[in-house]
Design goal:
368 residues; two-stranded antiparallel ribbon; mainly alpha; single chain; four-stranded parallel beta sheet
Amino acid sequence: MSPEPIPEAIEEGALLRADARQQAALDAKRNPLSIARRIKAAATAAGLEDKPAEGDKPRVSKARQYIDALAADKAKLTPPDGTKPISAFWSYGIEHPEAPKNDWGVPFLSQRFIAEEWAAQQNETTPGAAQTLETTQGGRELDGMFLWEDEVIEALGGEEAGFPEGYAKATWAKISETYAGLAEGRTLVFGQTADTRSILHQQELGELCKNPDVGLHNIDFVYEAPRSWPEVTRTEAGTNAVRVVAQFDNKDLPRYIDPQGFAAATPEARKAEIDNLLESAAAQAQAQDQVQVPTQAQAQAQAQAPAVKAAEQQATPKSPASPLWQMGFQQPQTVTRPKRTGPTPVAASPGAPPLAPRPLATGMDGPA
């Protein structure tokens, strides 16, 4: 059975966003000083000053202080009064012949753009119905800083000004954690699983689980479990609950499930593995004053519940349920549609700025 394609309207919009962000990133690389000046001006307006080096402590520029504060600023990530949008999260992407090429020369469409286009179309029908991190005020501002570009980091002063290697990912991880902590009701994950290198795995899912306004029962993966898995693995380990707490890519890290080995085990062993995994997650949650992770029976009941049931859990005023293609949609590994025709891509609107995709990176432009 061939994978079901992304709806054309969402696909076209996502490609436009990817093209626009690619151009914006190239512009930032060509003129990083303008980005740096803008960030420093914002820091000055906020009343910040450079902190000189003291003893073993390095100098911390006002720009670094401003960005750090932005990543933790709940006010800039809080939805407007009167709205309770479905918060979307994303990770990785798919190869697509019409998408911009990444650093490895592969045409790659980030799930970010698919999630943003879905949210934009939801908001056309019901304003305030859906959001992604990059469409919030804080997310837009941080996104416009282009911290993934080495040229921008250098223009900000580099390590001597408080911007060490890995700063971009650490900052996006922090704002992602803040964003997840503010989510309410049902949340959607645009991805099949959460890679252990991703911000989704390392920060967002854990924060959503302990968020009393979300919890594990309100986290839905947009796509089905990978069809490369054996059917028994997809059925028993491919539920939303298990995919939230498990990982499937690194046998040397906790909560690993081997899709092939899991299928080869006896039914009793499979059940024990899932039970142990959920119980371990529950114990950790209790130790950290987090919400209770459901039992295996609860997880199975959740997996069997219709999509409309999950939609009803959204806090009032309710956002619309996700499109039918999402729940149970199989993510294609490579899209092979004929080359599109139409207008030249234009810059994304300020409400939904896209980002250059890099599938093997470990930040917001990769497995976020």
